[in-house]
Amino acid sequence: MIVIGRGIAGVLLSEELRERGLDVLVVDHPRPGRASAVAAGVVNPVVLRRTVPSWRAASMLPLAGERYRQLEARLNVRCWHPSPLFRVFPGDTDREDWVRHQDDPEVGSFLGQPGDDVPGGVDAPFGMGPVLGAAWLDVPALLDAHRKAWSAEGRLIEQEVGPADVRRSAGEVVVLERRARLVVHTTGPFAEVPGLSRVRGEGLTIRVPGLQLPGIVHRGVFLLPQGGDLFRVGATFAWDQVWSGPTDQGRAWLEERLKQLLMLPYEVVDHWAGVRPASKDRRPILGRTSPQEAVLNGLGSRGVLLAPWCARHLADHLMAGRPLDPEVDAARFSDQGRTTTRPA
Ligand SMILES: Cc1cc2nc3c(=O)[nH]c(=O)nc-3n(C[C@H](O)[C@H](O)[C@H](O)COP(=O)(O)OP(=O)(O)OC[C@H]3O[C@@H](n4cnc5c(N)ncnc54)[C@H](O)[C@@H]3O)c2cc1C
User: Fold this and answer.
1) Ligand 1 pocket, residue 45 CB under 6 Å
2) How many independent structural domains does the chain possess?
3) Using CA atoms, how far apart are residues 121 and 155, in angstroms rounded to an integer?
4) What's the pLDDT tens digit per position in 147-164?
5) Does the Cβ of 287 fall within 6 Å of ligand 1?
6) Are 82 and 328 in contact (CB under 8 A)?
7) What is the domain range of residue 164?
């Protein structure tokens, strides 16, 4: 089997298939704009704007924790960090709303007791509410460890796959002269998959001397501690000119929100951008697109949380013939959609 693309989707899928005893080859070329290279890795089971759980959070969250811990052990890397996440209340009504939602059977189990113990330097006169079960994944560390392991096993080719590098015939696909009975495209925002939409995201890395946070803090943007006095700030959402890279408008938007959250001086040390592979109905896109090809895509803005379940679900479908959940089935957008990859 060949997996094309080695972002979060390709990493989780290749590991899933390998564990099931398949002979897997991964092919990847790091393209500018790829999502996983800039993903902050925040895992937040609550949509804070609406105080509702993110899609299937109650079942996705334990699976994600279990899966990333297994990968830590196999790939010899520390990347999964359970971490408190605090919502800074913009006003009293937001705090009251939070308390009311604590009794909600869907989201209540993720909402901790609001508190007034606010870290120095954070502007939170109405206190903060802890999201329970949050975490962050050190995505670059996981990608790096996966790269080392798969290179050492001779199972990684780091090369661009152009349209002419894929030859299809009855019963097999040939990619860069390697034959496979099945090719799975995990090429993120570069894929041409029916239903896929692309969303640019930008973020900053800042230095804030003296700031000590007990976890991730969120108000409009998140502030994620990275060790020492470094923090990541993110992220923007833009649906136009998605391949532009970092923009002045993106930075201004981020800094405007940052200043509502942070009362300390900071220095911007990096500004990054990438393109999220989202979908028209905000659900992942999984399944066969032809007898010899399949796709795992559409992870959107919660790729870290969704990828473990998606990889397992797709592998169950491809290997054991289990039916796909209609909510994620690629066929919902097109019965004959064939996955190809955008030319560079
Ligand atoms: C700014 C930003 C912040 C984000 N923050 C978070 C967050 O905090 N938490 C979270 O869960 N998610 C976050 N996301 C979303 C997350 O990044 C995505 O859901 C996820 O990374 C998608 O992974 P992917 O593997 O599908 O795509 P990608 O990571 O883009 O991987 C696709 C891979 O395929 C390769 N490729 C493509 N075409 C070819 C080809 N022809 N030949 C060879 N290789 C090819 C690409 O170079 C790339 O390596 C963020 C996204 C952005 C942009």
Assistant:
1) no
2) 2
3) 48
4) 999 999 999 999 999 999
5) no
6) no
7) 2-39+140-196+281-341
